[in-house]
Amino acid sequence: MNGNGTLEEAYERLHRTGPEFEGWLTNHGPMAVEAMVRHGHARQVHRWLDAYESRLDELPRGSSPITADGWRSALGDPHRLGDWLVFFGREVTERPWRTVLETWWPRLLPGIAAGATHGVIRTGHAVHALLDQEDGPRLAELGQALGYWAARWQQVPGFAVPSGTADPTAALAAVPRIPEPKIGINNRLGQLTDLTGWTAALSALRPAADAERARDLLADLTTAATVHYLPNAHGSAVMLVHAATAPTAVLRTLPALPRAQWAASLYAAWAASAAVTAAYTPAAPTPRHSLPTAPDSAEEVFARAVRHGDEHAIKLADTCLDVYRRTGDPDALAAVIRATELIDEL
Fold it and tell me: What pLDDT, on the 0 to 100 scale, is given for residue 295?
């Protein structure tokens, strides 16, 4: 990543704003600009931010400090968002960031549904940036990401450790749909508790025999969710994006984590991806002949997402390019085209 300081400048602008706006919507700015810089679009970042920043709220202030001994009572309390941001801002300046991550990852991971999975997604982007280069703004971004995740900490209902034989593609295809796909994500996730076959579907994934297998299964999960998006995006062109981007964020974080944490990371990512899939997959996929085809150039696909400007299209393109470069599957690129078409209709 070579943005000649653009990412740092963007982070400094965004760190004057909060992780949420209009009450609960997620600030996607840090995630989108990290992807844009990494894919060679640093020159477009500030113009994109000029338009996006006007929607954002001010950085929330803390009211009651969170302590190393008393953090559990504040976990998942959105009213303590400002306190969590202050806490992790201090953590990443006083301790090595990898030590902070190693300590807090297993504490936060069970709450991977936080902010419609945006807590872990923002953390994954921050870690990706830090693995490339360590500096003050990037450390501050990790602190903001972890603070947001902690404040919105939320478990996936009915979590079950995988114990089956299915690969990620088969397991994702077998996830049942919620009966009332209406209203927001919390309403939809709440339906999972009583959803027939939900726990069995989570259990169906093949467990990881070792850390390397966990990494490989996680990569396969990002591929399965990306390919699943293409014919099913009309279920929710925006929300279904997270079935792919959440496991991608976890996959990108693995190099900064102890190998002993990789299997649990896979299982949490699988639960999150399956939950979003259950909540937003439509009753029937779009017929193949009605779907777009991929252009020849992966770079052009990402450039199209940047020109489109929607933050979800940019984030999906970031994941889709990873999948395409790993597998060569053109459906990964076509998924980005599908996203831009459907988001235009919203």
Answer: 85
Taking the domains of the chain in order of start, what are their residue ranges? 6-151, 157-346
Backbone angles phi, psi at 51, to 5 degrees: -80, -35
pLDDT of amino acid 3: 77
Other CB atoms within 10 Å distance of the CB of residue 90? 13
- Encoded tokens for 289: 């002949």
DSSP letter at 193 equals G
List C-alpha distances in Å: 4 to 7, 10, 44, 214.
8, 12, 13, 35
Three-state DSSP at 272 gives helix
Taking phi over 0 as left and psi of -120 to 50 as alpha, with beta for the rest, 158 belongs to left
The residue ranges of the chain whose pLDDT is under 50 are none
pLDDT tens for each residue of 26-65: 999 999 999 999 999 999 999 999 999 999 999 999 999 9
Q: Does the pTM exceed 0.85? A: yes
Backbone torsions φ then ψ of 21, nearest 5 degrees: -150, 160
CA–CA distance from 102 to each of 47, 114, 151, 253, 265 (Å)? 36, 19, 18, 11, 12
H-state helical runs in the chain: 6-14, 29-38, 45-52, 81-94, 97-108, 118-132, 136-151, 168-173, 185-190, 198-203, 211-232, 242-253, 262-280, 298-308, 311-327, 330-345
Number of neighbours of residue 314 by Cβ within 10 angstroms: 25
Alpha carbon of 216 to those of 172, 174, 326: distances in Å?
16, 20, 11
Closest CA to 224 of 255, 246, 252, 197: 246
3-state SS, residue 313: helix
CB atoms within 10 A of CB 27: 24
pLDDT tens digits along 295-318: 889 999 999 999 999 999 999 999
Report the distance separating Cα 262 and Cα 265, nearest Å. Answer: 5
